[in-house]
Amino acid sequence: QVQLVESGGGLVQAGGSLTLSCAASGFAFSSYGMRWHRQAPGKERELVASISSIGGVTNYADSVKGRFTISKDNVKNTTHLEMNRLNPDDTAVYYCEAVWLDRNYWGRGTQVTVSS
């Protein structure tokens, strides 16, 4: 049974930090690239960060570049998103996605709220 479970969301003040985690099971995690997306109320889902299957290549949305860091642990089958210097515009539900060829799996999301 494939599972992606996000954790680590919560309420934080502007300027603060959070680290999100995504625990994977039920598939060959090391073969999959991982992505973090977010969706704010009334807005389209946005791709925030991605990392290649072995972690050698990362990409970030311009809105988070220099503040967020994505990482992947193929031993623990987890992906993390370290978020620094958070601002209210980062408020959203954050989702992780596993991608390999034509297969993809999604988690259910974790809420991040940044207060001003």
Q: Care to describe what's here?
A:
It is a single chain. By secondary structure, the chain is mainly beta. The protein has strands spanning 3-7, 10-13, 18-25, 33-39, 46-51, 58-60, 68-73, 78-83, 92-100, 103-106, 110-115. Strands 2, 4, 5, 6, 9, 10 and 11 form a seven-stranded mixed beta sheet that branches. It has a four-stranded antiparallel beta sheet with strand order 1-3-8-7, with no helix packed on it. It starts with a strand and ends with a strand.
List keywords for this structure.
116 residues, mainly beta, seven-stranded mixed sheet
The span between the termini is: 40 Å
Count, helices: 0
Mean pLDDT: 97
Q: Please outline the major beta sheet.
A: 7 strands, mixed
Poorly predicted runs of 5 or more residues: none
The percent range for strand residues is over 45%
Order of helices and strands: EEEEEEEEEEE
Q: What's the oligomerization state?
A: single chain
